[in-house]
Write a sequence for this structure.
């Protein structure tokens, strides 16, 4: 699988490697499927993690380990959406806003997780090229995926917060394709958030007994 770490092409003087390109294209597809609340979003997310794990395994243990966590959360998301499928009027999952308690728990988990992971990366420099931003993106991604698995509108907000750091970090570390993809992520996230926001209001609207479905 060494070809995954070889150069695919050069774009604007930036060297694009195959794993970076394939993994992030799959990530874009995942986001689009998530917008449509398609169950296929999770297998594609798993495949994206598998591609990046294969590329990193053997020389970037920290990055490979992060992809294992992403794949586990993707399996959890698949299980959650399988259970919730058919509850919305279009036969897919329902979406909602998180409760204040859930928001507080996710924020606390994100903060504590970022500190813990950053300290781990700092203690073992081979695990990450930039411990604190890398930890923030990793933990933020896991929190966003968890919120998505639960059908929470806040998952889009979590992705936006990841993008704010992810775009400059990827460009700064030579992952140009990831940087470009994160910019596109931002646009998709805004559109997806609007769609889920409006749908959450429709799904929460009570149906009158005897009214047409």
């Amino acid at each position: 699988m060494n070809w995954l770490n070889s150069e695919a092409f050069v774009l604007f003087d930036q060297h694009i490697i195959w794993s970076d390109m394939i993994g992030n294209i799959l990530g874009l597809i995942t986001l689009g499927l998530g917008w449509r609340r398609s169950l296929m979003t999770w297998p594609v997310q798993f495949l994206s993690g598998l591609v990046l794990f294969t590329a990193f395994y053997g020389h970037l243990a920290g990055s490979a380990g992060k992809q294992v966590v992403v794949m586990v959360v993707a399996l959890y998301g698949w299980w959650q959406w399988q259970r919730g499928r058919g509850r919305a009027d279009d036969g897919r999952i329902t979406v909602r806003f998180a409760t204040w308690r859930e928001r507080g728990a996710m924020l606390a988990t994100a903060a504590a997780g970022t500190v813990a992971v950053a300290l781990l990366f700092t203690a073992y420099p081979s695990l990450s090229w930039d411990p604190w931003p890398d930890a923030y993106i990793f933990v933020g991604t896991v929190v966003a995926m968890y919120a998505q698995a639960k059908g929470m509108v806040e998952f889009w907000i979590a992705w936006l917060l990841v993008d704010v750091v992810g775009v400059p970090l990827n460009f700064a570390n030579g992952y140009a394709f990831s940087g470009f993809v994160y910019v596109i992520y931002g646009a998709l996230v805004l559109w997806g958030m609007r769609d889920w926001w409006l749908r959450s209001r429709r799904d929460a609207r009570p149906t009158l007994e005897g009214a047409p479905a």
